[in-house]
């Protein structure tokens, strides 16, 4: 029960332009007790993060309007948002494949991921 109280105090922002993936991630994390919100485009991410200061951001690399790595870099360069853990989600199956365009993300999860794996990654970032 204590764990769920801790998780309920954690706000997570899920950014993915695929509505099915975004909704699944949100439902899974809400069922674990997190407070979750979502965005479907990259242009609103920086302002939303600055205004709401989520505890964790899950960020897809390939958004329709922006590259998630650019958004990640922008958030990590700003003093008000640089400490917020960011987990990159990508169809690319290796963090090393994204290294050339590094963004200082805190974690990486390859699509398609197992729900248990998603929850483990998020709980680690929330701890």
Structure described in brief:
It contains six helices and five strands. The protein is of the alpha/beta class. The protein has a single domain, classed as 3-Layer(aba) Sandwich (Rossmann fold), CATH 3.40.50.
What can you see in these coordinates?
This protein is α/β, with parallel strands linked by helices and 127 residues long. The protein has 6 helices and 5 strands; from the N terminus they run αβαβαβαβαβα. The protein has helices at 2-8, 19-31, 45-52, 68-77, 95-98, 115-126, and strands spanning 11-15, 35-39, 56-60, 86-90, 107-110. It has a 5-stranded parallel sheet, sandwiched between helices. Helix 4 (68-77) links the parallel strand 3 (56-60) and strand 4. The longest helix has 13 residues, at 19-31. It is globular.
Break the fold down into its secondary structure elements and pairings.
Elements: H1 2-8, E1 11-15, H2 19-31, E2 35-39, H3 45-52, E3 56-60, H4 68-77, E4 86-90, H5 95-98, E5 107-110, H6 115-126
Parallel strand pairs: 1-2, 1-3, 3-4, 4-5
